[in-house]
């Protein structure tokens, strides 16, 4: 259980930095509050965000990729009454000349997009959700988009990727701090719980891969969450929480009803022992006997976890072959082909030293798949949106 002064909390500022690994949290952020290792709901932005704002596991809300939209009837952070809600999307704005017309994630979440500067004047009580650039490619000060970044980094070392990634993390921390200064200027820090987290992690050479369009790996699953409030001491909490725990916690602190979601209210319940992460994404057109999808399920505790492939080895091999031919990261992957093949073609992987037995995973997954499910709206991407995702590296 997390000690938060509920009586003083009127507002929530939820900052979701893109692609920040658990081991890469910037000190200017960790020094501000209580840090907790977090199991991401997915390793893909639209899926993780849908779990964060709804409190549902991915198999419940069924959002798999950009173009999918949450059921409009589904209760989320943004459907709550008697509180002002905002969603701002500030990731790599310099590459999007027309943000409003090419906005993508807000459609997935069934909400409107606000200017990030509106944090300076949104009226309390409010829940302000912002997606920040975090550690998303392109890293460092590269003048171009993610596709161009990877294409132009042919032959560079893992060390350089990590160094440039770290610079992106520092830059995002500086921006996040500037948002806190807006709250401070309004004398709202005493009445606002700030939650910093990430939608998923990032691969920086592990298993021969870069970015986050790959099978599940602990560097993608474990992300930081930091709770920031003047009354919360700087510390690192043992154990884990999950993306699905944020929604019921925010509902309780905001005096709103939680519609019986599977997560835990962290202010009133003990921390969970395990967390599940799912990934299901269509990467190739359907062909006979193959799905064209990458689909993985995984279960984690604070020490490690198990990953299981839900698609066949032939299917995964075909997808890997396509990446080795066309991905902007293909040169790096080819140089580490044995590691890459192991990641894509293994039916089961164990990472770290999980305290749970592998046999517990099936019963956990069966429980999740038996939970109530919502409908999802699936639509094709418009040209502008597809180009935008290409620039950010999601389609390679």
Description:
30% of the residues lie in helices and 22% in strands. With 396 residues, it is of the alpha/beta class. It has a single domain (9-274, 370-392), classed as 3-Layer(aba) Sandwich (Alkaline Phosphatase, subunit A). The strands form four sheets. Strands 4-5-1-6-9-2-10 form a seven-stranded mixed beta sheet, sandwiched between helices. A four-stranded antiparallel beta sheet has the order 11-12-13-14. A two-stranded antiparallel sheet has the order 3-15. Strand 12 (293-301) and strand 13 form a beta hairpin. Helix 9 (313-326) runs antiparallel to helix 11 (337-345). The longest helix is centred in the middle third of the chain and has 28 residues, at 158-185.
Please give a handful of descriptors for the protein shown.
Alkaline Phosphatase, subunit A, 30% helix, 7-stranded mixed β-sheet, 4-stranded antiparallel β-sheet, 396 residues
């Amino acid at each position: 259980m997390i000690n938060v002064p509920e009586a003083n909390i009127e507002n929530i500022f939820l900052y979701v930095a893109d692609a920040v690994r658990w081991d890469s949290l910037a000190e200017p952020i960790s020094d501000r509050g209580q840090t907790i290792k977090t199991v991401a709901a997915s390793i893909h932005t639209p899926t993780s965000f849908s779990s964060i704002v709804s409190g549902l596991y991915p198999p419940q809300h069924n959002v798999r990729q950009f173009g999918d939209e949450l059921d409009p009837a589904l209760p989320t952070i943004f459907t709550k009454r008697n509180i002002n809600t905002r969603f701002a999307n500030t990731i790599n704005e310099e590459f999007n000349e027309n943000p409003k017309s090419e906005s993508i994630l807000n459609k997935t979440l069934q909400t409107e997009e606000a200017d990030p500067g509106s944090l300076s004047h949104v009226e309390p009580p409010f829940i302000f959700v912002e997606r920040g650039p975090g550690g998303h490619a392109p890293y460092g000060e590269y003048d171009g988009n993610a596709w161009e970044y990877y294409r132009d980094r042919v032959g560079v070392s893992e060390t350089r990727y990590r160094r440039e990634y770290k610079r992106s993390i520092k830059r995002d921390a500086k921006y996040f701090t500037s948002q806190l200064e807006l709250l401070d200027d309004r004398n709202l820090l005493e009445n606002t719980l700030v939650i910093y987290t990430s939608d998923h992690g990032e691969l920086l050479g592990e298993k021969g891969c870069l970015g986050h369009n790959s099978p599940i790996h602990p560097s993608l699953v474990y992300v930081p969450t930091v709770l920031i409030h003047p009354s919360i001491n700087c510390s690192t909490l043992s154990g884990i929480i999950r993306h699905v725990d944020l929604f019921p916690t925010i509902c309780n602190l905001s005096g709103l009803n939680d519609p019986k979601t599977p997560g835990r209210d962290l202010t009133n319940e003990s921390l969970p022992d395990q967390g599940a992460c799912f990934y299901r994404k269509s990467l190739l057109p359907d062909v006979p006997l193959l799905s064209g999808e990458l689909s993985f399920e995984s279960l984690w505790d604070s020490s490690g976890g198990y990953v299981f492939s839900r698609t066949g080895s032939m299917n995964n091999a075909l997808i890997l072959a396509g990446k080795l031919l066309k991905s902007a990261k293909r040169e790096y992957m080819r140089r580490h082909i044995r590691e890459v093949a192991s990641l894509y073609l293994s039916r089961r992987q164990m990472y770290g030293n999980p305290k749970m037995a592998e046999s517990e995973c099936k019963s956990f997954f069966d429980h999740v798949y038996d939970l109530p499910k919502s409908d999802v709206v699936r639509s094709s991407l418009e040209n502008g949106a597809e180009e935008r995702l290409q620039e950010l590296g999601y389609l390679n």
